[in-house]
Amino acid sequence: MAKHANPDADILDEVQEPVNEQVKGRSLWADARDRFFKNKAAVVGLIVLFFVTAFAIFGGLISQYEPQTVDFSLMGAMAVNGSPSIETGHYFGVDFEGRDLYARVVQGTRVSLMVGVVGALVAVVVGTLYGAIAGYLGGKTDDVMMRLVDVLMSIPFMFVLILMLVIFGQSIFMLFLGIGLIAWLDMSRIARGQTLSIKNKEFVEAAIATGVRPLTIILRHIVPNLLGIVIVYATLLVPQMIIFESFISYLGLGVQEPSTSLGALIRQGTQQMNNGTLWMLAYPLFFFLITLFAFFFVGDGLRDALDPKDR
Amino acid sequence: MSILSVKDLRVTFDVPKRGAWPWTPPMKLQAVGGLSFDLEQGQTVGLVGESGSGKSTVARAIVGTVPATSGQILFEGTDLASMSVGDRRRHRRDAQMVFQDPLAALNPRMTVGDIVAEPLTTHYPEMKRAEVKKRVGEIMERVGLLPNLVNRYPHEFSGGQCQRIGIARALIMRPKLLICDEPVSALDVSVQAQVVNLLKELQRDMGLSMIFIAHDLSVVKHISDEIVVMYLGRIMEAGPTHEVTTKPRHPYTQALISSVPIPDPVLEKARPRPVLEGELPSPLNPPSGCVFRTRCPKARPDCAEPKDRRQYENGVRVDCPYFEVKDALAV
């Protein structure tokens, strides 16, 4: 083993490629992606999610009717003539007012997904930055910032949101505002907790010693390292937001006519349950359930992929 | 003029009492108590002591991540505490640090190239990307890594390689002072030798001054010109490496040296060793007088009196009035 007389030999031995060719590294993200795609339930969830999203975006293209158009030819005989059929062009049948349910479900899915994704996005951006800054700065700043979160959390949000919707009128903007206000609180706590453990790592100290500015440290060293947990939490937050919005809409306080959401459609479906028009409930409920299941499976898969230690 | 001069450095941390009111004064933990030493241009000072003796705190105070409570740290004649923002930035460039845990010191989400380049991109944001890349390649080669590994991530490297990356990051700014905080204690013995030799070589080529921290005297003596032996934040003995390692005077130094194994079973078995009993006392409540007296085999009643115990002999400072010169068998 004469070659080991050279102290660098073990290092040079490990790489056989020519020196001038750059070696491609495997990031932790690439590892996580591989683990995710090995998880069958998560992949199925992702595919379902893909189709639901495609349905929400492009479903309107094959619809024969506008979501707001009332089909007067069916008036009075909805339970008989308004049932789902290819011939009439009402693929999912019509709703209790004679509007095409297929077009309504497309629109409702779009609104529900949007509410969920926007809510989760607000949570990720605001919550992560807020929590990371509080955790990194520490001390008094941390105390003040986190006590504020505690105060906001102690407010019964469903109650306040309903009051807001009653006082300021029911609009989708109000709904977004209400969901945005509540969604980031949990996220900021999670981000802060992670930051507290990351900021004591030596690579953060190395950055401080080098003279990197605090905001750069947070964005370059802290946030990428807590992103794994944040992404997992965000994917699990999306279905929560959808349920939240559906509940508000179910109470009749959420999305207003002529717009609709899955929650509003389910509410209308349940009201017609005794009239022999079960399809009015079945189709929105089906899309509601598969979307939620898909999000939960994807979230689960991401958690297993991104922090394998916690399995 | 020495490049670094530490004068009576004290670092005290506030430790809040458990379950106390927010306004009750916190307990004081003195991590470093009255440390002084000088570092000459191109020389190496070794800081030795067991865990909890304040070595790392000294390093952090010198790079400025921990504020000194009192005393002075003069870097090229300027006190760190009185530096302006610009001076402090220059000091950050001139004094770099190598960390103990090689993998923990590298951000797992960044490529090695980005990690090594970070000091450059921080201090010279206007530098061209090609220039940065060239400098990164040069320094990687300098520390014995192939420059084509820049796109890899830290977890793809061994401990020794990670430590080389850490050294490359510290040296890319061409600092004047390199502080190595136990750079080899997390590595295999064979890799330790490689890294120590690399550091020596780099020091010679780049004219670096170094502070080398370790708890293992046998490593420190290879690289240091002077050794400072610390215990509970205080100096026990300080002097030229040869004097301290071959003729230890302070009972603590003698105990440290006797704990280094001799690679000869017969000698190893035969030698008498003053084994230290017990644990390091709590720095929240240090012993009065000489802090080592609770574990010292030669402790006498007057060791508890608070007084200056500094003695000088043959260029060695010993903080014990009852010291005896003892020949060390081997280190």
From TrEMBL, chain A:
InterPro entries named among the record's database cross-references: BP-dependent_transpt_permease, MetI-like, MetI-like_sf, OppC_N
Keyword Cell membrane applies: yes
Annotated Gene3D superfamilies: MetI-like
GO cellular component labels: plasma membrane
Occurrences of domain ABC transmembrane type-1 (ranges): 109-298
Membrane protein topology class: Multi-pass membrane protein
Locations listed in the record: Cell inner membrane; Cell membrane
UniProt cross-references to Pfam families, sorted A to Z: BPD_transp_1, OppC_N
Sorted UniProt keywords: Cell inner membrane, Cell membrane, Membrane, Peptide transport, Protein transport, Transmembrane, Transmembrane helix, Transport
An annotated GO BP: protein transport
Major location category of this protein: membrane
Family listed: Belongs to the binding-protein-dependent transport system permease family. OppBC subfamily.
Name by which UniProt lists this protein: Oligopeptide transport system permease protein OppC
Organism: Histidinibacterium aquaticum
